[in-house]
Amino acid sequence: MNARHAIVLVGLMGSGKTTVGKRIAQELGYPFVDSDDVVASVAGKSVREIFAQDGEARFRQCECDAIKSVLVGRKSSVVLATGGGAVISSENRSLISEQASNVVWLDASVEDLVVRTKQSAARPLLDGDAAATLQSLSNQRSAWYEEVATVRIDTRGKTVAKVCSAVMEAIREGADHE
User: Is the residue at 1 inside a domain?
Assistant: First the structure.
């Protein structure tokens, strides 16, 4: 793998981007960054607070700035977990496509996502009918995930360890073709 490898994980909220990203980063010896953590750190408030106080549009701009700060001009390799809606922005899609060596779409069923996100108060878009919202988000975003992804991992019925193995295998196969 090259000296400045960027692996970006995309997918709906609850698809496992942060969990898988941390494990992949550890296995590769790369730093791990979650774009939501960068946004919250810079803003000095949680993602939920940004949505409530400043609105989704402001959050999306902060998210774009965070992704740019992680990917552009980096001096070392990185694993980046993006927010589920990062692909909404054409600027983010371009940044990710241009800057990442691998873009991994963790594709999960709506049923799995409902179970995984049920316990989290940090997901402002899921207030209300989570299943209907997740289905709608999936319908809206799937084409964008597909647009940026260099590999798609179906997470249905897979443990975190199996998903990580599939991601590592895909990354290694990609590196073999460089």
Answer: no
* Residue 137 to residue 126: CA distance in whole angstroms: 10
* pLDDT in the model for residue 178: 45
In a domain, 47, yes or no: yes
55: number of Cβ within 10 Å? 11
* CATH code (residue 79): 3.40.50.300
Instruction: Report, in this order, helix, strand and coil percent for the chain, each rounded to 5.
Output: 60, 10, 30
Confidence of residue 122 (pLDDT cuts 50, 70, 90): low
Return the structure tokens found at 154: 């179906």
Domain count for the chain: 1
pLDDT confidence tier of residue 113, bands split at 50, 70 and 90: confident
